[in-house]
Amino acid sequence: MHQQQRAWFRTEAVNPEMACEKISKASISEVFEAYYERIFNYVSYRTGNRYTAEDLTSQVFEKIVAKYHTFQPGRRPLEVWIFTIAKNTLTDYFRASQRHNTCSLEVIEEKDSKLSGPEATVISKESALNLIQALSALTDKERQIIALRFGAGLKNVEIAKIMNSSESNVGVILFRSMKKLKKELEREDHSEA
């Protein structure tokens, strides 16, 4: 595809007002390919369920297609706009379900699936449960920032825009959250010994 046609989703369009008018099915397909895995990982980290994550990720992309005409390239990068939609979709989901799981066992199992044998499986599941317990000690905002950073792979500046916070505040929260997680995991290790 021609470089200028793809520019709208990287917010590099020469004329931002015209960028959204050039969106085609092919360019929406490119956005899907570029962001699906990251959105899915983020949603999966927050919901703790692969099937729910798939459904919510689909809802996010439905909203992107339905609302692409509201995207303003000069106001914020597309990535921030997309993850704001994902964050709002998750907020609606949690309000409706009143569930606040934070980490998917399935995601952890997939990442640890390189280990083999029953001992490795037991260790992997114990690690996942320990991580879930440790994450439950964090605030919702801390879990949200961790999910955006490690689930979606966003940078602090992008997270700050999504969370309506400063970049330095996100960095401090992330640092303190990771410190809390480490402390919680070490405490759980010592209590098991």
How does this model look, in words?
- This protein is mainly α and 193 residues long.
- The protein contains ten helices and no strands.
- It is globular, with a radius of gyration of 19 Å.
- Mean pLDDT is 76; it is low at 1-22 and 100-109.
- It holds the Pfam family Sigma70_r4.
Strand pairing plus helix content: what structural class?
A: mainly alpha
SSE ordering: HHHHHHHHHH
Question: Strand share of the residues?
Answer: under 5%
Q: What is the count of helical runs?
A: 10
Q: What is the first-to-last residue Cα distance? A: 58 Å
Q: What general outline do the C-alpha atoms trace?
A: globular
Low-confidence stretches: 1-22, 100-109
- Helical amount: over 70%
Report the radius of gyration as a whole number of Å: 19 Å
Largest sheet: none
Average pLDDT, all residues: 76
How many β-strand stretches?
0
Summary keywords:
single chain; 193 residues; mainly alpha; 10 helices; 73% helix; globular; RNA_pol_sigma-70-like; RNA_pol_sigma-70_dom; transcription; RNA_pol_sigma70_r2; sigma factor
What's a concise summary of this model?
Pfam families: Sigma70_r2, Sigma70_r4. The chain has helices at residues 3-6, 16-19, 25-47, 50-67, 78-97, 105-111, 118-136, 140-151, 156-163, 167-192.
Write the layout of secondary structure elements.
Layout (H helix, E strand, L loop, with lengths): L2 H4 L9 H4 L5 H23 L2 H18 L10 H20 L7 H7 L6 H19 L3 H12 L4 H8 L3 H26 L1
Helix pairs in contact: 3-4, 3-5, 3-8, 4-5, 5-9, 7-10, 8-10, 9-10
